[in-house]
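[Discussion] Sanity-checking designs against the backbone

I'm trying to build intuition for which residues belong where. Below is a C-alpha cell string of 208 positions. I'd appreciate it if someone posts a full sequence so I can compare it with mine line by line.
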C-alpha cells in the first residue's frame, strides 16, 4: 500500500511538471512572436523615416500631389489656348456713339452762343451766327468727333428757343412750322460751324 501511494504521488508530480513546462514554452513562444511583430513594425517605420544618409521617407500624399500637378498644369495650358483661340469681340458701349456728358457741355455752350449772338446788333440771324461761331470754336479745340452730340444739342437749343419765342403761337396750334424751321436752322448752323472748325484743325495738324 505504501508503494502504491508513492507511485501515485510521483505520477501526479510528473504531470504537474509537464503542465508547468508546457506553460513556460507557450509563454516564451508568445513573447518571441510579439517581439518579432514589434521588430517588423519598427523596421517598417525605420524604412519610412528619413535615415539621414540621403534617403527620404516614403510619403503617399507626396506621390499623389506630384501626380496631380501635371494634370493641373495641363488644364491651365488648355484654358490659355482656348482663350487665345477664342475670337476677341470688342465691347462697344453707349459712350462710343453718344456721350451724355459731351451733350450737356455742348448744350450749355450753344445756349450761351445763341444768347450772345442775339445780343449782337445784327438785323437778322444774330443768334444763328452765335451758334456757328461756338460750334466752329468747339471743332477747332476738340480732337474727337462729336457730330451726334452736336446735332442733338443744336436741335435742343433750336426747339427751346423757338418755343420760348413763339409760345403763344405754339399753344394756339399754328406755330409748329416755326418750331421746325428754328430747329432746322439751328442744327444747320451748328453742323456747318463744327465741320469747318474740324477741317481747320485737320489742316493745321497736317502742316505741323
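Best answer:
Here's mine. Compare freely.
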Amino acid at each position: 500500500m505504501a508503494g502504491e501511494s508513492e507511485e501515485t504521488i510521483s505520477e501526479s508530480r510528473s504531470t504537474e511538471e509537464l503542465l508547468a513546462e508546457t506553460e513556460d514554452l507557450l509563454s516564451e513562444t508568445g513573447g518571441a512572436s510579439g517581439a518579432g511583430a514589434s521588430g517588423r513594425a519598427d523596421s517598417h517605420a525605420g524604412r519610412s523615416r528619413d535615415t539621414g544618409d540621403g534617403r527620404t521617407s516614403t510619403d503617399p500624399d507626396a506621390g499623389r500631389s506630384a501626380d496631380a500637378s501635371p494634370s493641373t498644369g495641363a488644364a491651365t495650358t488648355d484654358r490659355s489656348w482656348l482663350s487665345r483661340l477664342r475670337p476677341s469681340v470688342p465691347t462697344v458701349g453707349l459712350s462710343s456713339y453718344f456721350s451724355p456728358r459731351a451733350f450737356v457741355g455742348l448744350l450749355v455752350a450753344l445756349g450761351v452762343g445763341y444768347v450772345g449772338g442775339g445780343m449782337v446788333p445784327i438785323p437778322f440771324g444774330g443768334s444763328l451766327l452765335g451758334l456757328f461761331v461756338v460750334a466752329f470754336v468747339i471743332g477747332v479745340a476738340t480732337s474727337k468727333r462729336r457730330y451726334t452730340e452736336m446735332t442733338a444739342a443744336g436741335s435742343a437749343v433750336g426747339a427751346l428757343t423757338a418755343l420760348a419765342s413763339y409760345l403763344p403761337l405754339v399753344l394756339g396750334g399754328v406755330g409748329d412750322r416755326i418750331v421746325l424751321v428754328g430747329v432746322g436752322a439751328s442744327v444747320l448752323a451748328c453742323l456747318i460751324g463744327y465741320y469747318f472748325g474740324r477741317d481747320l484743325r485737320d489742316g493745321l495738324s497736317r502742316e505741323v
